[in-house]
Automatic annotation (TrEMBL):
Residues 1-21 are annotated as: Disordered. Residues 38-90 form the FHA domain. It comes from the Bacteria. Keywords: Phosphoprotein. The lineage of its organism: Bacteria, Bacillati, Actinomycetota, Actinomycetes, Kitasatosporales. This is FHA domain-containing protein. SUPFAM superfamilies: SMAD/FHA domain.
Length: 262
């Protein structure tokens, strides 16, 4: 398997628990043998088994390692730079090792400036051999969530900045959104209470479908406010292309729009 091969390209079947890993310049496969350690970083063999960020002095020579024990691969950050996992989870040198789930896990090593170096990991499961894809097959459509007309309009107003792909966007407040909606559709009777009710019902419905970000308050971990939950909702809907920039056409482009919603 060449370094330029796709992670999803089919290779010979491997036993459950086999670790497959690759970077832009290197790749490897490691059997699930107790005590086996796979090291990755800027260094070269025999210091590391998988090279990553070799031209970036911010990456440690031994940035991290994966150890197989207790029937799982465990990831540990052994370098000075942070390692970022899916859902924004960070690992520091002091962070306890975490187990890898079967399937695909990308991790990013922080580098110099805005650079991040990708390490792709794949652990085969019992009924989930190394994935095989057909480059000539049709693309899989992204998972999207159904929204009625009122929900879509409400979310577009609340999340206009997300649909403009602004950096670090934040939703409008209910007060701002109510003014905007009252201006756009005065006959619909939008107000803060109605917005709160529709948002509550929507996040409960989507939470039951396995939404990618938390939509409900978890008392055991504190109680995030509506703004944080709304941020999660809008972020997930935009990332999944449930909401897309053409949806902004639902809003009238008028210079007299209330200043508070700008």
């Amino acid at each position: 398997m060449s370094p330029s091969a796709s992670l999803a390209r089919g290779v010979a079947p491997s036993p459950p628990g086999t670790l497959h890993a690759r970077t832009v310049i290197d790749d490897l496969s490691a059997p699930p043998r107790p005590g086996r350690i796979v090291r990755f970083g800027r260094g070269a063999m025999p210091d590391v088994d998988l090279e990553v960020g070799v031209d970036d002095l911010r990456v440690s020579r031994r940035q991290g390692e994966l150890t197989y024990h207790a029937g799982q691969w465990w990831l540990r950050n052994t370098g000075r730079q942070l390692v970022r996992l899916p859902r924004g989870r960070m690992m520091h040198l002091s962070t306890e090792p975490i187990p890898l789930a079967t399937g695909y896990t990308p991790l990013f090593v922080k580098g110099s400036g805005f650079r991040e170096h990708l390490v792709e990991l794949y652990v085969t499961g019992r009924n989930d051999p190394w994935p095989v894809s057909d480059r000539y097959a049709g693309n899989e459509r992204p998972v999207t969530w159904p929204l009625d007309d009122d929900e879509r309009l409400l979310l577009v107003v609340l999340g206009r900045r997300y649909l403009l792909y602004e950096e670090d966007p934040r939703p409008l407040t209910y007060t701002e959104a109510a003014k905007e909606l009252s201006y756009l559709h005065p006959e619909a009777g939008w107000n803060e209470r109605r917005i709160e009710y529709r948002f509550e019902a929507l996040r409960r419905r989507l939470d039951r479908t396995g939404f990618m970000y938390p939509l409900m308050r978890d008392k055991s971990q504190g109680c995030p406010g509506d703004s944080a939950l709304l941020h999660n909702l809008l972020k997930g809907l935009v990332e999944s292309t449930t909401l897309v920039p053409p949806d902004l056409e639902l809003m009238e482009d008028d210079e007299d729009r209330p200043d508070s919603a700008s």
